[in-house]
Amino acid sequence: KEVVLSGIRPTGFLHLGNYFGAMRNFVRMQEEFECYFFVADWHSLTTHPDTKELRSSVLRVIAENIACGLDPEKVALYVQSDVREIAELYLYLNMLAYTGELERTTTFKDKVRLNPGNVNAGLLTYPVLMAADILVHRAVKVPVGKDQEQHIEMARNFAERFNHRYGDVFPAPHAFNYSTKLVKIMSLDGVGKMSKSENQMATLYLADDDDSIRKKIMKAKTDSGPTEHNSEKPDYIENLFTLMKLVSTDDVVQQFEAAFNGCSIRYGDMKKQLAEDMVKFMSPIREKAAAIQNDKEYLAKIMASGAEKARASASKTLAEVRKAVGMQYL
Ligand code: TYM
């Protein structure tokens, strides 16, 4: 079976971007592949050094993934810092990563611009730690949203560089989505991608109650509608259609597509429909997640068994890595 890996940072509440970009694929992939999914708590330290909320965020991410349909019996669901082998592989890969390429990484440049006061070395080597996450299980498919594409390319480069220098240990990992395109869900205000920390009114969190979901959708950015038949959709309108395709029936989507193309669309009606369908979609997830989050014993069991599975796979890889590098002295 091909190996699949993906991670989520525990830096806040999970949102629809995380769900549609990544988690939805996890749920489908668990039926077909050998899957490793984890909470990237080390990665969160690059931007969130304050760890007061960390524990509750980690537990929530685990609970929300299970609520979305991940089955801990079928996959390894674990926390990154429980698998020390990742840190060891990160060290080897750091010697193969060039500071120039790390400095050119888009996410690094964005983070420097946003927070020039905390440009730590961990932020610079973020893609190297990600590569270690992936390669430690010799994963080949990495289900992620569009924003992670460059990181996966870098992981592929580091893997090739390692193989070239020390011999073939790693297969080449690729970003994955069931449809050929990687997903990017935009923020409801039409400014950039939906994200954990940006405008909270424009982000639909999996934990939002029904009224917040309705309010946020009704406030989503629209305009006065097209004036020419079959015109191209502005990206914030396209985004509403994308969300609608994900939660509404085909009939409903077609009806609004036709209205758009015929210049008779009423965005108020569209948003009302989308809000109701979204509430129907999201409320069972929220309720299930809340119940799981309260069951600390169950969560502890899952994290322990996930870590055990992940360590078994990781230690095998590291034994090969040490051998390939020539660091076996006994
Ligand atoms: P993170 O925690 O920012 O996001 C988790 C997943 O959600 C996807 N995503 C989105 N997809 C579509 N539209 C959006 N608006 C949107 N926002 C987030 C992300 O692409 C991601 O798949 N660096 C990673 C975590 C990580 C990782 C890894 C991922 C650490 N090691 C190894 C894969 C493999 C991150 O910060 O994701």
Automatic annotation (TrEMBL):
The keyword Nucleotide-binding applies. A motif ('KMSKS' region) lies at residues 193-197. ATP binds at residues 9-11, 17-18, 145-147, 185, 193-197. L-tryptophan binds at residue 133. Homodimer. Belongs to the class-I aminoacyl-tRNA synthetase family. This is Tryptophan--tRNA ligase. It comes from Filimonas lacunae.
